[in-house]
Amino acid sequence: MAKQLHIHHDSHEPTVIDVHDDEAVQAHLDTHYAAQTVEPREPTLTVSGLRWRDGRHFHLGWSQHSLPLGSTLRLEYVSSDRPASPLSKEVEYVAPAPTCRFCDRAASEIGLLIKRRHIHYICDACVDEFKTLVDEWRSTRDA
């Protein structure tokens, strides 16, 4: 028997997800509050998730349904042998190539890209440019 999450929505077949330690599952109810539409829209239930496996990161999707007024929604975390629902989406996330935070040039276009605090980068050309500006400012200040 596997640990499973069963998401029941009215008379639809439940979305069945095998629960793994390297996955996160999200059931998101979007009421479309910020949507600027003339006609109100029914809320949307989206079941999605993330997987981290073998150093790779995947975006997952199982289902998406509109919820008419009066709908019933039930979540169960159970031990079951029910077959898992097929994924409607499984996309590997590939991190973009790092770029200089100041000039937006890619690492492949420049000599040195200096990393600071996980996601911030500055290239050697921008460092040189800033150094020139600081030196000019200091010389006018001291004069």
Topology of helices and strands:
Layout: E1 2-9, E2 15-18, E3 23-30, E4 44-53, E5 56-66, E6 73-80, E7 89-92, E8 113-116, E9 120-123, H1 124-142
Antiparallel strand pairs: 1-2, 1-6, 3-4, 4-5, 5-7, 8-9
How would you describe what is shown here?
This protein has one helix at residues 124-142; strands spanning 2-9, 15-18, 23-30, 44-53, 56-66, 73-80, 89-92, 113-116, 120-123. The chain has 143 residues and is mainly beta. It folds into two domains: 2-92, no CATH class; 107-142. The strands form three sheets. It has a four-stranded antiparallel β-sheet with strand order 3-4-5-7, with no helix packed on it. It has a three-stranded antiparallel β-sheet with strand order 2-1-6, with no helix packed on it. The chain starts with a strand and ends with a helix.
Give a brief rundown of this model.
It is built from 1 helix and 9 strands. The chain is mainly beta. The strands form 3 sheets. The protein has a 4-stranded antiparallel sheet, with no helix packed on it. It has a 3-stranded antiparallel sheet with strand order 2-1-6, with no helix packed on it. A two-stranded antiparallel sheet has the order 8-9.
Radius of gyration: 25 Å
Uncertain stretches: none
The backbone outline, from C-alpha atoms, is elongated
- Structural class estimated from helices and strands: mainly beta
Percent range of helical residues? 10-25%
Beta-strand content bin: 35-45%
* Count of helical regions: 1
Q: What is the average per-residue confidence, as pLDDT, rounded to a whole number?
A: 89
In what order do the strands lie side by side in the largest sheet? 3-4-5-7
The total beta strand count reads 9
> Biggest sheet: strands, sense, closure?
4 strands, antiparallel
Give the count of structural domains.
2
The end-to-end span amounts to 80 Å
SSE order, one letter for each helix or strand? EEEEEEEEEH
